[in-house]
Write a structure and sequence with these properties.
alpha+beta, four-stranded antiparallel beta sheet, about 35% strand
Length: about 220
Amino acid sequence: MFSRTSAAGRDLHSALERAGFYPRLVADVVEDALDGMEPLAHLVQLETHIEHTEVHRHVTVLVLTTDVMVIVHVDDQQMDDAGDQVMAQVSTETVPIGRIGSVVLSFVYHQPQDYRPSDKSRELTLAISWSGGQRVDLAPAGCADPQCDADHGYTGTLQKEDVVMRISAEADGLQAVDEARAFARSLRKATTATALEPKQVSTDPRTPRSGGRFVRGHHQG
């Protein structure tokens, strides 16, 4: 396990346990993604979706370190009608802080005409953009014949991995809204500090000087 000696490490463990979504598996995946880096701040969100007779759950974990943000996403998929066979789909991404382009917070306040400085937002949406990787969400494939019991393999959707998370007091609790706002502040502070870092300029006369035009490669970060 990653370090529990720091307050942030202990809080992360507690958040995964509270979510209750395969906490040992998720903790191991987070630990592997951190690769020895110490967590500074985190955000854990468990969501549940009901489709006809099936219940689908997934957890998203964001962990901020000194240099990177780690994103872990875990879905579960019921493989049979009885629910005895379950598959977990795991994806991770590690994004350098310097690659994060924007951190957007959108708030919802109820009854704004009665607003007081002590009132807290009841809902927020956190959007983090870095033009990252893509994730494949898999599900068992089927066919139009209701009597068919053949194995049709899997079907999936490819989704862009930039993060948008909606947290509301009604669905997640007021504490979750406060925690999401605190994480966004930490992330915003980290990205701002990185953007303001002075650029290293070589004094070696052998180093070619760049021209006035910035040339971007085919692969954009």
